Amino acid sequence: MKLPPKPKDPNWLFYLKFEADPFGYMDFIYKQYGDIVTILSGSQTVIYISNPQGIKEIFTNTKEITARGALNQSFAMGTGKQGVLQLDGLRHKHRRKLLMTSFQEGRTQAFGNRICELTDKIMSQQTIGKPFLAYKIIEDIALRIGIELVLGLSEGDRYENIKHLFSVLMKYEQSPFINLLLQLPIVNQDLGRWSPQGFILNLYQKIFQFLYTEVSERRQKPDSLSSDTLSTLISACDETGEALSDEEVRDLLLSPIFAAQHASGAAIAWSLYWIHRLPEVHKKLLEELSTLGKSPDPMSIATLPYLNNVCNEVLRIYPTQLFTFPRLVESPIKFMGYEFDPGTILIGNIYSTHQREDIYPEPKQFKPERFFEKQYSYFEFLPFGGGARSCIGGAFALFEMKLVLATILSRYQLALVSKKAEHPKFGGLISYPASGVKMVMHGRRKYQRQSQPSAACF
Ligand code: HEM
User: Is 256 close to ligand 1, i.e. is its CB under 6 Å away?
Assistant: First the structure.
């Protein structure tokens, strides 16, 4: 079997270089070895693809390529053994459909005003003139939105408790110091609650326990009026007509909350960075937003073309999820001039596909206009992946990005504190701004101080 080229760096150096500068190193690999490369992970052959023809194969060839849940077991610590990521086949299809019901457009649209309200509430707490880390603030907003949408909680002790657990976990997992410590084999073990790994495991356990209690209590006192994900799952049946177990419901709730907090939080923080780095983009957005008048409704914000293309360009240039989840070759298959044996793992390289000069001229330039000029295929622009494991929250994530950004831009005058470029950091699954996007609020925009009709966003 002739495999695609393999980078010369030994594995340890490969991972070290990737860790130090993920995007820079991927650019180097693409330039040096092309758009299909082999990486050996122990004895496992993994093929990374950043070619639309190869990506199409991954997303559409369901005969020879599958999206096995077993390949995602390494995420089970955070998503439970029965999370949607760990499932495959019919059960996976069925549970995806259930989760998607609770994220479908009609439901999330009704949530639009709440997104604007929450954003404004958190932003209004910032002190004028005092620098803050935008990523931290946005992550808090995204987590609140996620908890409310998935669990139906918006205040009270239980809400504060679960929000605190998720926030501490994220802070801990993204701490450069803890990450450095966890590189040491001795530290990367559970040595009790006060060791870094033990502390993280303990936090996960507390989150699992909290969600389990929440599921069983809701089961005892179902609320026929609530439309959150928890209610949807409790009232659902599995493919045999049986109710889902409490453990399964708990596991299915985890990925959506994590994704809402991490992926959406990072995408919005990157958006604030680009918009405030490029005055022309900022100006055009403000002009477009002003066409909606003082109290636009969320749906008209969601259909603004320039805002839409700014969000797309953010997800193109720095996709928050750099790779698709792995797929497995089940029977011999040929594409792009190579033959792949069963057992080979295929991964779509989202970042490098989005950086192709032949698809995106001047790929390092932030140019929302490119989305006006060309319609990209699902295999060229894939921030939410595709095929069997495509993101179930993609439409909601875009909707949320637009509303949070529109609320902040229309109501507050912000600026970046430093002129230095913000670099990405790769955190196991997603990439986020390493320095947290330091910003300062100069004031509120005057015309926004009006009383707000309840159906409107501002
Ligand atoms: C900007 C925000 C987001 C980005 C960039 C993003 C991106 C992605 C990507 C690239 C995948 C993998 C697709 C593949 O392997 O083909 C994925 C899967 C997934 N996403 Fe998102 N996501 C975002 C927000 C969300 C939100 C808000 C949710 C909440 C519902 C969510 C839930 C999921 C789930 C559950 C999967 C796994 C689906 C499965 O295993 O079948 N994501 N996402």
Answer: yes
